[in-house]
Design a protein that fits this description.
The protein has 331 residues and is an alpha+beta fold. The chain has 2 domains: 229 residues, 3-Layer(aba) Sandwich (Aminopeptidase); 82 residues, Beta Barrel (Elongation Factor Tu (Ef-tu), domain 3), CATH 2.40.30.40. The protein contains 9 helices and 17 strands. The protein has an 8-stranded mixed sheet with strand order 1-2-12-3-13-16-14-15, with helices on both faces. The chain has a 6-stranded antiparallel sheet with strand order 5-4-9-6-7-8. The structure holds cobalt (II) ion (CO) and zinc ion. Cobalt (II) ion (CO) binds next to loops.
């Protein structure tokens, strides 16, 4: 699995610019599903036919990023955020643009070193000597994202965009493990533009009109020094979401997931996330309503260039989702 995770996380794909990620996923999943469609917004919808209820699984392809907004006479580039870009995480990070050009994030002199890092004081230095050269390489309106290599620490890994390429890798692995032996009519949906408002999940759910939906995405942890109190720890198992900022998960699905985890001795923990939400929030409110829930991968430093997850948790999520699909999903 690490090969696919490395490939997916090192691929360029801020919101709206998911094409390269989509191409990787299509290659990796096509032998394990009955059909693949790409819809008008760019969602990749892979289908394994089954007799039972229609289940939609969602993981988003896009990552947070930047878009260039102004270039000064010396060639320094100002930018706007694409999704939840944290200025404090970004100082001196490298940004890669769609054409492969790399730059570094610099900051205007701060009055007091304890003052907050502000988006409006940041700029990208792409090594241009003046405005003309910068405009030619990275014109206003160019999208970029963090540039960072995947690191294998053994049990744990560090990479950019584990939010949510780890979810994409998990869905590919689940499809591979199922070998089309399935009790449910299952759609693996790789969504676009989650980080800017759950856009792809909204339209693909409307199209598919599922009976049940599960989002697979990252969640925070409470196990780092002076972290916000949260009963989710790295390496302690699949996080079955109970509630986040955007939704209350369907209690029947939550109960089923807990039972499956217990019966199969899959390590799990219950997640209540104070900040952030997932594609499930948009899917839940589709048409007449879709019973929805989410299974999360505990992650540290979310929305930075160096997110960390534990491969045991990744394995637990794969097992939980696989077992869930092997039984007839009911609510
Ligand atoms: Co995110
Ligand atoms: Zn996410």
């Amino acid at each position: 699995m690490k090969r696919i995770i490395k490939k997916l996380t090192e691929t360029f794909g801020p919101s709206g610019y998911e094409k390269k990620v989509r191409d990787v996923i299509r290659e990796e999943i096509r032998d394990h599903v009955d059909s693949i469609k790409i819809d008008k917004l760019g969602n990749l919808i892979a289908h394994i036919k089954g007799q039972g209820p229609k289940v939609m699984l969602a993981a988003h392809m896009d990552e947070i990023g930047v878009v260039t907004s102004f270039i000064d006479k010396n060639g320094f580039i100002r930018f706007s955020n694409v999704g939840g870009f944290f200025p404090v995480h970004s100082l001196t990070s490298r940004i890669i643009f769609e054409n492969g050009r790399i730059g570094v994030i610099g900051e205007e002199r701060r009055k007091g070193m304890s003052d907050p890092v502000e988006m409006t004081k940041l700029y990208i230095d792409i090594g241009a000597k003046d405005k003309k050269e910068a405009e030619k390489l990275v014109p206003v309106g160019t999208f970029g994202c963090y540039e960072r290599k995947f690191e294998d620490l053994g049990k744990r890994i560090i990479a950019k965009a584990l939010d949510d390429r780890i979810g994409c890798a998990i869905l590919i692995e689940v499809a591979r493990k199922l070998k089309r032996k399935i009790k449910n009519d299952t759609y693996f949906v790789f969504t676009v533009q989650e980080e800017v408002g759950l856009k792809g999940a909204r339209t693909s759910a409307f199209r598919l009109n599922p009976d049940i939906a599960l989002a697979i995405d990252v969640t925070g942890t409470g196990d780092t020094p002076e972290a916000r109190k949260m009963a989710v720890n790295l390496g302690a198992g699949a996080a079955i979401k109970v509630k986040d900022r955007g939704m209350v998960c369907d209690p029947r699905i939550v109960k089923t997931l807990i039972n499956i985890a217990r019966r199969n001795k899959i390590p799990y923990q219950l997640e209540i996330l104070e900040m952030g939400t997932t594609d499930a929030t948009a899917i839940q409110l589709t048409r007449g309503g879709v019973p929805s829930a989410a299974v999360s991968i505990p992650s540290r430093y979310i929305h930075s260039a160096s997110e960390v997850v534990d491969m045991d948790d990744v394995g637990s999520v794969v097992n939980l989702i696989t077992k869930y699909l092997k039984n007839r999903a009911v609510v």
